[in-house]
Amino acid sequence: MAKVISVHSFRGGTGKSSFTANLALLLAAPNRRVAIVDTDIQSPGIHIFFGVNSKEVTYSLNDYLWGKCSIQDAAIDLTPRYGDVIKGKLFLIPSSIDAGEIVRILREGFDARTLTRGMRQIIKELNLDVLLIDTHPGLNEETMLSIAISHTLIIVLRPDQQDYAGTSVTLEVASALNVPNMMLLVNKVPPIFATHAVQEHIAASFNCRVAAVLPHAYEMMELTSSDIFALRYPDHPITHTIKHVAHMVLGE
């Protein structure tokens, strides 16, 4: 049975999409079939990490939600871009980056239940091992439905009081939705903070497992979202830590 993993943050700017992109590549590398659905429809961005431009997008998640195509029609096979790095398959279902399409979503909305049906369908159609859902920050109907169908919820947060408050609310909602497995990922931690101390503090504060604590990295900033960090820096400690998280979400 495919694993459904939602990656969420209560606020923007946590590095959620960057982490999701890296996690997806590392999961697909050893012969797994992995897909990402970008449900951040109001502000899509994960496609940038994979170098996908608007000319390559025949159909988007928006088209599926408005009945213009099947969800598998919106899936872009990213595997050929990475040569021998990926032994499995990696797909992306992007949200539209057209300004008019984004405005339409904001004005008209969509049936969130169609989104969850599409996720179940894409698992079957693409014979997936893992489906990653890159959610929209905050809490709304589509985010809650995505979380509700997930086997694992990873909440990305920074060491910041506003992030702490939002994460607490998200954990309460996820508990009410009976998400089987929840974990926190602390990102962009300044070097003046001791990693072990941050992990202990966050775990105790939220009574939730901390999957990893990732430091602020200048190498990550230098990429400016133009590439996958794990691909550019395969031996970096951050890459090794995300590999560890990949094993955790698979229960290995």
Bulk shape: globular
Order of helices and strands: EHEHHEEHHEHEHEHEHHH
Counting helices, strands and paired strands, the structural category is alpha/beta
Kindly, what is the distance between the CA atoms of the first and last residues, rounded to a whole number of angstroms?
15 Å
Describe this structure in words.
By secondary structure, the chain is α/β, with parallel strands linked by helices. Helix content is 42%, strand content 18%. The chain contains eleven helices and eight strands. It has helices spanning 16-28, 46-49, 61-65, 99-108, 112-125, 141-148, 161-176, 195-206, 218-223, 229-232, 237-249; strands at 3-8, 33-38, 76-77, 89-93, 130-134, 152-157, 181-189, 209-215. Strands 3-4-2-5-1-6-7-8 form an eight-stranded mixed β-sheet, with helices on both faces. Strand 7 (181-189), helix 8 and strand 8 form a beta-alpha-beta unit. Helix 1 crosses helix 11 and helix 5 (112-125) runs parallel beside helix 6. It is globular and about 50 Å long. The model has no long low-confidence stretch (mean pLDDT 94).
